[in-house]
UniProtKB/TrEMBL annotation:
Family: Belongs to the bacterial solute-binding protein 2 family.
Transmembrane segments: none
PANTHER family: ABC TRANSPORTER PERIPLASMIC-BINDING PROTEIN YPHF, D-XYLOSE-BINDING PERIPLASMIC PROTEIN
Protein name listed in UniProt: D-allose-binding periplasmic protein
GO MF annotation terms: carbohydrate binding
C-alpha cells in the first residue's frame, strides 16, 4: 500500500499541475480578446501654432469633446511653436506613430511637405484625417495615398468676406492683400477668394504679399505696403493674426478709420475689434468644432476600416458687427 502511494501521489500532483497549465492558455487568450475589445482608440490631434488663438480654440473644442466621451476614446493634443516649423510637425507625426496611436487628425503647416510622413503613418496602420489646410492632391497621388479632408471651402469663405468689403468700397478703389504661406492650400484658396471678390467689384489689388500667417510680419509688411500705396482703401488679411498686425500698422500710419481691414478665422480679439469698429469683417470656420468633426470622422474609420474614404465639407460663415450684436 505504501508502495502504491509512493507512485500514485506524485502522479496525481503532476496531473494536477499539467491540468492547471492547460487551463491557463485558454483563460489568457480569452482575457487578451476581452482587453482588445475593451481597448479605447487613441487619437492624436496635431495642429499648427498654439500661439494662434484659432488653434487654441480648436484644442479646447477637441478636449471638451473627449471629456464628454472619455469612455469612447483617448486624446493627445500637440502643436508647433509657429506656422513655419515644418520639421517639428513631421517629427510629431513620427512620434505619434511610434507611441501607438490609432489615428492622427492633422492641420498640416504645409500642404506638400507633410504628405510623405503621413504616408508612412498610413503604412503603419494609422488612420489619418486632414483638417483645416487641405493636402496637395498631386502629391497625394504621387505618394499613392488617399487622405480624407474635413474642413471648409476656404475660397468660398474668403469670397464672402471680400464681397462684404467690396460693398463698402467704390469701383476703382485700391486694396492690398496679406497672404498666408503660399505652399498652403488654404492660403492659396483664400487669396483666390479675395481676388475673385475684388475682380467682380472692379476693385484693384495694388499689392499682394505673404506675411506667412504671422502678426509681426503682417505689421511690418502692411506698414511698408501702405507707405508704397497711400491710396489703398482696405487690407484683406488671409487670417486674423495678420489682420491684427495690419490693424497696428494702420494705427501707426495715422490712417485709423480710413483703411478698412478684413480677416479670416473669427478669433476673440478680432471679434472685439469688429464690435469696436476697428476691423470690418472676418470669416468663421468654427475652429472649436473643426477638430471635433475630424475626430468623429476618424472614429468612424477606426470602427469600420473598410468604409469609403470621403471628404467632408464644414461650414464657414461671414462675421460682421451686425452678426455680433
Amino acid at each position: 500500500m505504501n508502495e502504491l502511494r509512493k507512485y500514485l501521489i506524485p502522479g496525481l500532483l503532476l496531473c494536477g499541475l499539467f491540468a492547471g497549465c492547460t487551463s491557463q492558455p485558454g483563460s489568457s487568450e480569452q482575457s487578451a480578446e476581452q482587453n482588445a475589445e475593451n481597448k479605447k482608440p487613441k487619437i492624436a490631434l496635431i495642429m499648427k501654432s498654439l500661439a494662434n488663438d484659432f488653434f487654441s480654440s480648436m484644442a479646447k473644442g477637441a478636449e471638451t469633446h473627449q471629456q464628454a466621451r472619455s469612455d469612447e476614446y483617448d486624446l493627445v493634443v500637440n502643436g508647433i511653436k509657429d506656422e513655419r516649423d515644418l520639421s517639428r510637425q513631421v517629427a510629431l507625426v513620427e512620434e505619434m506613430v511610434s507611441s501607438g496611436v490609432d489615428a492622427i487628425v492633422i492641420a498640416p503647416a504645409d500642404s506638400k511637405a507633410l504628405v510623405p510622413a503621413l504616408r508612412r503613418a498610413r503604412e503603419a496602420g494609422v488612420v489619418v484625417i486632414n483638417i483645416d489646410n487641405k493636402l496637395d492632391a498631386e502629391i497625394l497621388q504621387a505618394e499613392k495615398i488617399s487622405i480624407p479632408f474635413v474642413g471648409p471651402d476656404n475660397q468660398a469663405g474668403a469670397k464672402k468676406v471680400g464681397d462684404y468689403l467690396a460693398s463698402q468700397l467704390k469701383t476703382g478703389d485700391e486694396v492690398i492683400v496679406l497672404e498666408g504661406i503660399r505652399t498652403s492650400f488654404n492660403g492659396t484658396q483664400r487669396r483666390l477668394g479675395f481676388e475673385a471678390a475684388m475682380k467682380a467689384a472692379d476693385i484693384k489689388i495694388a499689392d499682394s504679399q505673404s506675411a506667412q500667417w504671422e502678426m509681426s510680419m503682417a505689421n511690418t509688411l502692411a506698414s511698408s505696403m501702405l507707405s508704397e500705396h497711400p491710396n489703398a482703401k482696405a487690407i484683406l488679411a488671409a487670417n486674423d493674426s495678420m489682420a491684427l498686425g495690419a490693424l497696428a500698422a494702420v494705427r501707426n500710419s495715422g490712417k485709423a478709420g480710413e483703411v478698412l481691414i478684413v480677416g479670416f478665422d473669427n478669433i476673440p480679439a478680432v471679434q472685439q475689434a469688429i464690435k469696436e469698429g476697428q476691423i470690418l469683417a472676418t470669416a468663421d470656420q468654427h475652429g472649436g468644432e473643426l477638430a471635433v468633426f475630424g475626430i468623429e470622422h476618424a472614429l468612424r474609420l477606426i470602427a469600420n476600416p473598410n468604409a469609403k474614404v470621403e471628404d467632408r465639407e464644414t461650414p464657414v460663415d461671414l462675421v460682421t458687427a451686425e452678426v455680433l450684436k
